[in-house]
Amino acid sequence: MKKTNNSHSSQLAGKTYEVEDYKANNTLSSGLATTHEQASDAYMEGEVNAVIDNVEGEDIQVKREGY
Predict the structure, then answer these.
(1) Per-residue model confidence (pLDDT) at position 42
(2) On the CB side of 6, how many CA atoms lie within 13 Å of its CA?
(3) Which of 2, 28, 48, 60 has the smallest number of CB atoms closer than 10 Å to its CB?
(4) How far, in Å, are 11, 13, 29, 33 from residue 3 at the CA level?
(5) What residues contact 51, with CB distance under 8 A and at least 6 apart?
(6) What is the pLDDT of residue 8?
(7) What is the 3-state secondary structure (H, E, C) of 8-45?
(8) Of all residues in the chain, what percent carry a pLDDT higher than 90?
(9) Neighbour tally for 21: CB within 10 Å
């Protein structure tokens, strides 16, 4: 089997979040920014129970169902 050079894949796999990702126009950077935002929101929320805050201030529990 022929071994190929995957330098582009290595660059993608090695990319980490940077503040500039919020203003970037490429899919990878905007995805990292979105994931960072979601992770920091979940961390700051401090709960394991997933809830959705509706506009009336009521917490709606997210159902945990299998696939």
Answers:
(1) 79
(2) 7
(3) 2
(4) 18, 19, 29, 33
(5) 59, 60, 61, 62
(6) 66
(7) HHHHHHCCCCCHHHHHCCCHHHHHHHHHHHHHHHHHHH
(8) 0
(9) 20
Return the structure tokens found at 49.
């129970």
Residue 51 tokens, joined? 């809830």
Cα gap 53→59, rounded to integer Å: 5
Instruction: Give me the pLDDT at residue 62, please.
Output: 77
pLDDT score of 18 more than 80? yes
Distance CA(40)–CA(18), nearest Å, equals 14
Q: Which two tokens stand for residue 65?
A: 């169902």
Cβ neighbourhood burial of 22 (10 Å; 0-12, 13-18, 19+)? middle
The tokens describing 22, both together, are 């919020």
